[in-house]
Amino acid sequence: MEEEPLLEVENLVTHFKTEDGTARAVDGVTFSLFPNQTLAIVGESGCGKSVTSMTIMRLLQSLPAIFPAGSIRYRGTELMTLPEAQMRKIRGGQIAMIFQEPMTSLNPVFTVGEQIIEAVLLHQQVDRAKAWSIAEESLQRVGIAEPARRLQEYPHQMSGGMKQRIMIAMALACEPSVLIADEPTTALDVTIQAQILELMRSLQASAGMGILLITHDLGVVAENADVVAVMYAGKIIEYADVYELFENPLHPYTRGLLACVPKLGNEHEKLFTIPGMVPGATNYPQGCRFAARCTHCTGTAREKELAQQPELREVKPGHWVATWSAPGYDTAPETLPSLTFRRAKEAAQVAPI
Amino acid sequence: MLQYIVRRLLLMVPTLIGMTLIVFMMARFAPGLTGGGQFGEGGGRNARENRELARVNLLKKLGMMDADGKELPLYYQYWRWLKGAATFQFGESVKYGEPVSKLIGNALPVTLTMNVIATLVVYGLALPGGMLAAVKRGKWFDEIWSFVTLALFSLPVIWIGNLAIFELAYSKNLAWFPAGNLHSADTRGFTWLQYSTDYLWHLVLPIAVSCLGGFAYLSKLMRASMISNMYEDYARTARAKGVSQFYVVVRHVLRNSLLPMITVFALVIPGLLGGSLVIEYIFNIPGMGQLGVTAAQSRDLPVLQALTFIGSLLSLICLLLADICYAIADPRVSYE
Amino acid sequence: MSSAQSEAFTNAPIDPPETPLPALTAKHGRSFWQIVSRSYFRRIKNQIATAYVVLLAVVAVIAPFIANGRPYTAVVDGKRVWPLFRMLSREDRIVLLAGVGFLLYLAVRFFTRKRPPETRTPVRRIALLILVVLGLVASGGIMWSMRHGDNNDLMTREDYKGITPDYDVQGAVFPPLSWGFQDSIYPQSPETQFADPSKEHWLGTDESSRDTLARLLWATRVVFGIGLISELISLAIGIVYGAFMGYFGGTVDILGSRFIELVESIPTLFLIITLVALLGREIYLIMIVLGLTGWTSIARFVRAEFYRLRKMDFVAAAHATGVPLTSILFRHMLPNGLTPILVNATFGIAGAVTIESSLSYLGLGVQPPRASWGSMLNAAGSPGGIFHFWAALAPGIMIFFTIFAYNIIGEGFRDAIDPRLNRLE
């Protein structure tokens, strides 16, 4: 039986109108997220991954310059056309989001407890007393010692790692089905990073959540992701499960990314970099957007690349890529990327603090 | 909390001392001080000698010279002046001959009443106004609002004040308000209520005129503060939790945006005090401002010194109040 | 990724492919100032405000040449004379010199703008040096000629106009407005005082039967001069003070803040009227007093900027390579923090104009017969029931427009630098 996806994004497009023209931040993104699965969206800064998540949550300020299009379905319900009042029930209650900067993501003038119960009271029909105990429970679940005391503290009295745990607790207090984590560990040091990611893994296991993990760190992807979507210049250019991607990267950009990671034991004089810069979102070239920096496409493949933007095609079962240089691309079908793959997970341990 | 207040008070002591020093030293910058053209006080053989005699007399009166005409040492003068200032005794006004403390005692309540009411009006109008402009950002309301508040802020009181009297108080035009002064001509037999009403009616125009600039400034500040907070990460978090835009603004953003408004309060009263110089002059209100103007015009040093001292004292008190309010409002400020 | 593949990838030649790389061709980069001014001059209100201020500056410089009771030239009793030029005061000449010098400097910058930086900077420096030397020579010349020249004019405006029969005047060429700021209608009468606007006097006359428009134009010099120079003084004090505070932090910062708090706690206007009352009403004194009381907000700003900048790497680098302290402060850090300081300074000028006109209004500003819009307002409307609407309108509007223009410029500039508050992200 086909599993039902939690979140289906189809041809998502978000354009901004700016002084310099239309910025096509997200230009046709498609993926699906299943329960108990972690989908990682990888890409460098400015490729559109954050805008994708903000568009899903419909968190982009209703500035007149935004033109979203495409379809986002949560458990079958179309979110793009949902009235705002109902969207608010889903936001935080069904789909929760945590952000990159824990230091500034909490309101400094309210206690941590007040901020958590605000979410609880919004989405669950409970009274204040019950809400406080739910908040306390959620703090315990994320491994914070003395939760009752912590609830009365203010954000400035906590460290970055603890604040991020609070954010996770706040996001999970209402037991959402989907958690969108936008670079949750980028602003933390490595040891805390490991703790936070472990925490997320264990919470996912107990709740069966789907996690949309947005990051630029391939190490994080390798350890935590089940399925990976590589984004470049507003489009997904490769989509596969994590093992397949790391063993068999097909797109030159993905290969470049992987080559950039310095490895112990290799002897090189200079670190590898991908030459050139990401094209600005207001003037993408007509053909493949990576072609200008690509040193792999040659000959007829290159001509095709320059002529027309290649679409995602399933060149192998379960592996989509958007480049003419991939073997078998000419004849591959253009199916919608969707994988139910989940890796085998060890029992994760939550380090209490 | 008490610890915090005490600590702030202690920190204020050097500022206070410094201020008294400056106010005292102002007297030294008085070349040829003759205090209001009291030339030819008699006893001299020509104009020059008369001037010299007048000067010596004045210096004696000001306490800078002792009875024998010898100039007193500086620190002694300062100490004597400081002792007087601490007990609010500033000597006699050169122009009126009356004790300065009496003059100020009459003038201070008037100015204070006016300025307190003005502050309330300004804050009461600017906070909602700024909030509205912030929420309706980018729409035509906001554009017009910004332009109008900037214009209001730029209006010179010296012109608008007189224009207001001319248009709204002369019987030739609309005589809605009295053309100045603090009371109507004949207030005998007024009950307390009638007296207060009359008093307030006389204050409407001056307060309205003096509020224009402050209102414009504060509402701009409020708008800017709110807009910058609306884009902060914590506002985004609140929205991601599913809080409606209304509550994001009213509960989360508003409380943070009010913090700069508290800080600014320290500057509002000194600003109004300065403004009262002009307002009271135009509207003929016997407050500290008018006292200051006549003192400056007649070079009445004791009054000027006393006014500056009292003005600075008031400013420092407001600064302390603002600090305390801020410490209460912002949990990030520690009391230790 | 297998090691063979990664080897292949990392060792792949990074030669540019045959077809050109459109994404790599950068547009001709625009400097920060170009971006800011483009954004600034886009809006119409900024354009108008800037044009107005420039116009004011021009009027301030050439006021003696467009509103003067003496003609440029005339033939008096058979001899050609140049009364207007001969009777220019020292201040008039110096202001003219400064104005011309500034224009020349702008011209130099304009004509060298297309050169590459290597040749441009030396050329500009040499030109600046030449200008300075010329300026000094010219100033010396002015001083000398004022001292030794014939600076007495026995003829009055009526003489030049030919109204009185004492002199034979032919071919007198008058400036566009043939009234100076102290020329009264002769003889005076109640009709000539506060006269309504007429063909002869476009804005009417004032309480001493002087032409309002002429006084308005001359007053520009006072207002503009005081506004600009007092703000320059405030800038000088504030920048140095704030730079040291921000850079060193610690005790210097604490002590410095105490002193700022001290100065700020004294109500500005009280302090100013006291100092003006005691020291006298010389225009230069007023400039200095305003400058001495207005530096605190600049100092705060500068301190905040320097505090932020000193943590940046380029400062540490300069320090590590042995750059002297003053150089670090003023050649490396200051240009980076300059823009918000300029915004603050513009608002400061607006404030200085307000204070100056209030002072003049209260009778504590520049001495008569010098014209200032504030004193003109006082004559037109003061407590006691006098109010001449039209006589008050002209100076009132001028003060309003000037302050408004500076505020618009300040705000426009601030929005051009940090558009977050107005534009949509």
Write up this protein:
The complex is a heterotrimer of chains A (353), B (336) and C (425). With 353 residues, chain A is of the alpha/beta class. Chain A has helices at 49-56, 84-90, 112-123, 128-141, 147-151, 160-172, 190-207, 218-224, 242-247, 252-260, 299-307, and strands at residues 7-18, 21-33, 38-42, 66-74, 77-78, 95-98, 178-182, 210-215, 227-232, 235-241, 313-316, 319-321. Chain A has an eight-stranded mixed β-sheet, sandwiched between helices. In chain A, a hairpin with a 2-residue loop joins strand 9 (227-232) and strand 10 (235-241). The mean pLDDT of chain A is 85. By secondary structure, chain B is mostly helical. Chain B contains eleven helices and no strands. Chain B has helices at residues 2-25, 47-62, 74-86, 100-135, 140-154, 157-169, 192-230, 233-240, 245-283, 288-297, 301-329. In chain B, helix 6 packs across helix 9 (245-283), helix 9 (245-283) crosses helix 10 and helix 9 runs antiparallel to helix 11. Chain C is mainly alpha-helical. Chain C is 65% helix and 4% strand. Chain C contains 16 helices and five strands. In chain C, strands 2-1-3 form a three-stranded antiparallel β-sheet. In chain C, helix 3 (44-66) crosses helix 8 (212-248), helix 8 packs parallel to helix 12 and helix 8 (212-248) runs antiparallel to helix 14. The chains are: A alpha/beta (353), B mainly alpha (336), C mainly alpha (425). The interface between B and C is large, with 65 and 54 residues.
Helix/strand-derived class of chain C?
mainly alpha
User: What is the global morphology of chain A?
Assistant: globular
From the alpha carbons, calculate the radius of gyration of chain C and give it in angstroms.
28 Å
Number of helices of chain A: 11
Q: Which chains make the largest contact?
A: B-C, 65 and 54 residues
Q: Spatial order of the strands in the main sheet of chain A?
A: 6-7-8-3-9-10-12-11
Topology pattern of chain A, helix = H, strand = E:
EEEHEEHEHHHHEHEHEEHHHEE
Beta-strand content bin of chain A: 15-25%
Helix residue percentage of chain C = 55-70%
- Ranges of chain A with pLDDT <50 over ≥5 residues? none
Question: Sheet bearing the most strands of chain C, described?
Answer: 3 strands, antiparallel
User: Would you tell me the overall average pLDDT of chain A?
Assistant: 85
Q: Secondary-structure element sequence of chain C? A: HHHEEHHHHEHHHHHHHHEEH
- The percentage helix of chain A is 25-40%
Q: From the structure provided, what is the oligomeric state, counting identical versus distinct chains? A: heterotrimer
Strand content of chain C: under 5%
